[in-house]
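Researcher: We're teaching a course module on how sequence relates to structure. For the next exercise, students receive a sequence and then see the predicted structure as tokens, so they can try to spot secondary structure elements on their own. Here is the exercise chain.
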Amino acid sequence: MEFISRSPEQTRRLGMRLGALLKAGSLICLAGDLGSGKTVFVQGLAVGWGSLDAVSSPSFVLVNVYRGPYAQQFYHMDAYRLSSANEALDLDLDAMLEKGPLVIEWADRIQAALPSESLWVKMRWIDHEQRDLLFSATGDLYQEMLARIRRQVFGVR
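Model: And here is the predicted structure for the students to work with:
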């Protein structure tokens, strides 16, 4: 599914729609150059999921944890500074996925460490206001998630 966002607010709102579908074990993988809107999209994901915490890029701490209702946690990883998939495995991705959804910026850098089933969003800067978001899903759960978003956004199956 391809979506052209015409503003940061539209990118954030799309993230909110997807965030409402996330639960423990959900893996969202983001790829795209600097400035393509990854963190703005994650801000929407976290709000849609139910976090009241402010979302910021975890570039220097690698993983931010946001609180949700009922002591739930939302994990936001930035893999830009990781040099290998093995470094990602050292962060115990499985434990994060057991406790909450996991969203990874620069996921393409650690793809070998990730489960085969996930939802990928490849983001591309078009101009100052516009971004291109290309969604792809592997696994039944993520195919259904993508179908639900498609219905919500475009009104089609």
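Model: If you want an answer key for the exercise: The longest strand covers residues 118-125. The longest helix spans residues 140-154.
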